[in-house]
Write a structure and sequence with these properties.
Layout (H helix, E strand, L loop, with lengths): L7 H15 L6 H8 L4 H19 L2 E11 L28 H13 L4 E6 L3 E2 L3 H16 L3 E5 L2 E2 L2 H10 L3 E3 L9 H4 L5 H13 L3 E3 L2 E3 L5 H14 L3 E6 L16 H14 L4 E4 L3 H5 L5 H4 L4 E3 L11 H10 L3 E2 L6
Parallel strand pairs: 1-2, 1-11, 1-12, 2-4, 3-5, 4-6, 6-7, 8-9, 9-10, 10-11
Helix pairs in contact: 1-3, 2-9, 3-10, 4-5, 5-6, 6-8, 9-10
The protein binds iron/sulfur cluster.
Iron/sulfur cluster binds next to loops.
């Protein structure tokens, strides 16, 4: 069999799984592991076409757009080994304290101009407790909410108590990003200053406060296929509204600076499996997509992605927003602030 010829048995098996998810059924861990192990290019495209049907069934032709603003940069006390903002590593990343209102409003105006639904304020620190900093953070969200231009979202790390989550909800935070990053097994190899359970506890506080959950991970840390599968099923338990998928863009100075890049088709195959495990979630391509997927970026929608982070990332540049919007138009997809011609 050539690398591109169709394996009929695999073709039938992929179709069986795809039909089951379309009908509202679920896949087992063993089934997803088998899908993640497909090596034949034709089989991988077969998988992607089923993920595309599942996306169309549950998400239609609308793409959710969001963007972020780095509200406090660098000097983070945590040692996440992929991160340019950790104080543990010598990187070129900028450092500044929590932002004033003006840059946040400017980012909100730009996001709204581009039809972007949500703006997330992201802070490089361990997390938030009650005190003056929480007051300042809440003030920024109240201003953002009052301006009414974008949905105010947050990514502010670990929350120390339920009261902190309740304060954020009262200030207008509608959705909070807190990634599980990877599997429980691999997590200690990428971060030692906090735990998987710290992250799950924060997600519990947020849910209790009525804040929607945005939780995903990062691929290419050196994790195994089993770790990726475990992340999918851990997220299924969390039941997030949004699942941002980042792909490592190795930053000089960080411990993962020499990690080998993932092949674009491996990334797309993984995205397709996330779609089949989490059919109703917004699967979002986020950091690292431009550098890792290159010309195959648009195929991520065929692979089941339904959301896109646009604008620059925290420490790396993205392609211009207009190029992303043109890609969506060319695919016949719509987004909240615009429609395809
Ligand atoms: S990923 Fe977040 S918590 Fe970890 S080092 Fe970077 S900024 Fe800090």
């Amino acid at each position: 069999m050539t690398e591109t010829s169709v394996d009929v048995a695999a073709h039938d098996r992929i179709a069986t799984y795809g039909r089951r998810v379309l009908a509202g059924g679920e896949l087992t861990r063993e089934e997803v592991l088998w899908l993640l192990g497909l090596e034949n290019t034709a089989d991988r495209f077969d998988l992607m076409s089923w993920a595309n049907r599942v996306r169309e069934r549950f998400k239609g032709d609308r793409v959710h757009l969001c963007s972020i603003v780095n509200a406090k940069a660098g000097g983070c006390s945590e040692d996440c080994k992929f991160c340019a903002q950790s104080a543990f590593y010598q990187t070129e990343s900028p450092r500044y304290a929590f932002v004033d209102p003006e840059p946040v409003q400017a980012a909100a105006e730009e996001a709204a101009r581009n039809g972007v639904t949500a703006l997330g304020l992201v802070a490089a620190w361990k997390g938030l407790d009650e005190g003056p900093m929480l007051d300042e953070v809440c003030a920024r969200f109240e201003e953002l909410k009052r301006s009414g231009q974008v949905r105010p979202d947050a990514s502010l790390g670990i929350l120390k108590s339920q009261r902190v989550a309740d304060r954020l909800a009262a200030a207008g935070v509608e959705c909070y990003n807190h990634n599980l990053e990877t599997s429980r097994r691999f997590f200690p190899q990428q971060c030692t200053t906090h735990t998987y359970d710290d992250r799950l506890r924060t997600i519990g506080f947020l849910k209790q406060a009525g804040i929607r959950i945005c939780s995903g991970g990062i691929l290419g840390l050196g994790e195994t296929v089993e770790d990726r599968c475990d992340l999918m099923f851990a997220l299924k338990e969390v039941d997030p509204s949004f699942v941002p998928l980042n792909v490592l863009n190795p930053i000089p100075g960080t411990p993962f600076e020499k990690n080998a890049p993932l092949a674009p088709l491996t990334i797309l195959q993984t995205v397709a499996c996330f779609r089949l495990v989490l059919p109703r979630a917004e699967i979002m391509l986020a950091g690292g997509r431009t550098v890792n997927l290159r010309d195959l970026q648009s195929l991520s929608f065929l692979a089941g992605a339904s959301a896109l982070m646009v604008g620059n990332y925290l420490t790396t540049l993205n392609q211009p927003v207009e190029k992303d919007l043109q890609m969506l138009r060319d695919l016949g997809l719509r987004w909240d602030g615009g429609v395809s011609p």
